[in-house]
Specification:
The protein is an alpha/beta fold. The protein is 73% helix and 8% strand. The chain has 19 helices and 8 strands. Helix 6 links the parallel strand 7 and strand 8 (174-176). The longest helix is centred in the C-terminal third of the chain and has 66 residues, at 435-500. Mean pLDDT is 73; it is low at 41-45 and 408-449.
């Protein structure tokens, strides 16, 4: 982490030694330290990652089953911490993880190859990880040089250079050494000077000493930390920007989702008139039946009968029409509500499919899983429309208007009827007394009957016309009220849909705000690192 890098800057230089089993890593460390403390032998000995640190008292600390720390009173370790790793071709997953934890923090990585077999793939795989990803300073050590002729070593050296150029794009320094001879020389074996010269350990030691010089060590430490920090930053930036791209994609998908819902709502609203078309036709059918009923019942004598029984006749007619209206319109209302429910139910699977197929995992988890309560919405809408039908189906307007017409009919027919009745009575009396008087009163009675008949027919036509007009107005009013209630139900349904996806909306908004801050911070750090580049890269020691 970047925090660990800040700590590492204040620590001694960190050297990491990697290579295959039996490549001679432990022997190299023994030669550099001038004493045999790293195990060597016929069988692979380094089965754990080992960190060598300076300590006044020699001791070993088991950090974990895969990691140990050894403290040694060796001056060499005052300036270096050294990490010895298991062979690259025998690493278990945990060893690999720990090795790759130290590599990013390393100031110098020694890749140890055996002259016996310097062509192994596992070492080159780890090398590509170290160099290409972490841009680390690398030194090739061609170990066990005493097992090959100088001409063979020269061929191997050229092969390493060519392979490095091909795989890495650069060729690190290569030192061919015999750690066995160097250790013998440094532990006082006979012919120490000759052994040290043959071991060729001195050029490698001088390279290390150059690094250990104050200016070079400080520059190497800073450059290593800068390189690692850049890699870490770029990896974080890549992840953050990828996450930010995902967020933008989610936002675009969410916008398409909202457009889909809006278009679907508009489509449903356009269908409202179609939903109530059956109700509208049922109202027309009821009006036709009402007119037919009036025509059949409103005979001359029925009209005349209104003189004495208009209220009773009106109540009978009104009750009959209200009953027929409910019987005819109610099934159509239920059918309209069913059509609406079917249409709205089809939206939920479409919405779920869009979320499931288009949104990323984190955003998908915020999506609603419980559909709206269609049964409750259907029940409430049906109850509301039924209440409207009860309130407006018969309606006071028709009742009042028909009452006026019936009362007017009664009043207008009452005078001719009275005259006719009076004339008839007078005619009867006159017949008993005077023929002349009988003629006059007979004519008067006949005229009253004619006038009454004319008025009755006229009022009958007026009743039919007024009823038709009132039913047409009532039909429009009722259909409009039902359309408004269905529209209101649609608004409530889509309101519930919007409320259900509100967590998804909030998640997208919060994620954008969070990652926007990270992107801005990464851009600031990237600018800072670029400003440091001339100072860090230019600090390389000559």
């Amino acid at each position: 982490t970047l925090h660990a890098l800040l700590i590492d800057i204040r620590q001694p230089l960190l050297f990491v030694v990697v290579g295959e089993v039996k490549a001679g890593k432990s022997s190299l460390l023994n030669a550099l330290f001038g004493r045999e403390f790293a195990k060597t032998g016929v069988l692979p000995a380094t089965d754990r990652v080992c960190i060598f640190r300076y300590g006044e008292v020699e001791k070993t600390v088991d950090v974990s089953p895969q990691l140990i720390e050894r403290y040694l009173p060796i001056d060499f370790l005052r300036d270096f911490n050294v990490v010895d790793t298991p062979g690259t071709n025998t690493m278990v997953e945990e060893h690999q993880r720990i090795t790759e934890e130290f590599v990013p923090r390393a100031d110098l990585v020694f890749f140890v190859f055996s002259v016996v077999n310097p062509w192994t793939q596992s070492a080159w795989d780890l090398l590509a990880f170290v160099q290409k990803r972490w841009l680390k300073n690398i030194v090739f050590v061609l170990q066990q040089a005493d097992l090959r002729d100088p001409s063979e070593i020269a061929v191997i050296r050229r092969h390493l250079q060519d392979t490095a150029l091909q795989k890495l794009g650069t060729a690190p320094p290569i030192f061919a050494v015999s750690a066995r001879q160097a250790l013998l020389a440094r532990t006082g074996a006979p012919g120490a000077a000759s052994l040290e010269e043959k071991s060729q350990i001195v050029p490698l030691q001088e390279h290390i000493d150059l690094i250990m010089s104050d200016a070079s060590a400080h520059a190497l430490k800073l450059r290593s930390a800068w390189q690692t920090a850049q890699v870490v930053l770029q990896e974080i930036a890549s992840e953050v920007r990828e996450a930010f791209r995902t967020i933008r994609q989610d936002e675009e998908r969410f916008e398409r989702l909202m457009h889909f819902l809006q278009a679907r709502k508009e489509q449903t609203l356009r269908q409202v008139h179609g939903f109530v078309r059956g109700v509208e036709q049922a109202c027309r059918d009821c009006a036709v039946q009402g007119t037919s009923f009036l025509e059949s019942k409103l005979t001359f004598w029925t009209t005349v009968n209104m003189i004495w029984r208009r209220d009773y006749w009106q109540r009978d007619f009104q009750d009959e029409m209200e009953t027929k209206l409910r019987q005819i319109v109610q099934p159509q209302i239920e059918n309209a509500v069913q059509l609406l429910e079917t249409d709205l139910r089809g939206i939920w699977p479409q919405l779920q499919d869009m979320i499931e197929s288009h949104f990323a995992g984190d955003a998908k988890s915020q999506a609603p899983r419980t559909p709206p309560d269609f049964a409750r919405q259907r029940r409430e809408l049906l109850q509301s429309i039924q209440l409207t039908l009860a309130e407006r189906g018969g309606g006071n307007a028709i009742e009042e208007q028909m009452a006026v017409i019936f009362r007017e009919t009664s009043d207008r027919l009452r005078i001719p009827a009275g005259v006719a009745a009076a004339g008839g009575l007078v005619a009867l009396v006159a017949a008993m007394s005077s023929a002349a008087i009988a003629d006059v009163t007979g004519v008067l009675a006949a005229s009253a009957v004619i006038i009454g008949t004319f008025l009755a027919k006229r009022q009958r036509a007026k009743i039919l016309r007024v009823y038709a007009e009132q039913m047409e107005a009532k039909r429009s009013e009722l259909v409009l009220a039902i359309e408004n209630q269905i529209t209101h139900a649609i608004d409530l349904f889509y309101g519930e849909i919007n409320a259900a996806i509100q967590p998804l909306t909030a998640f997208c908004t919060a994620q954008r705000a969070h990652y926007q801050l990270l992107v801005d911070r990464i851009n600031e750090l990237d600018t800072t690192f670029e400003k440091l580049r001339p100072r860090v890269v230019g600090s390389r020691a000559d």
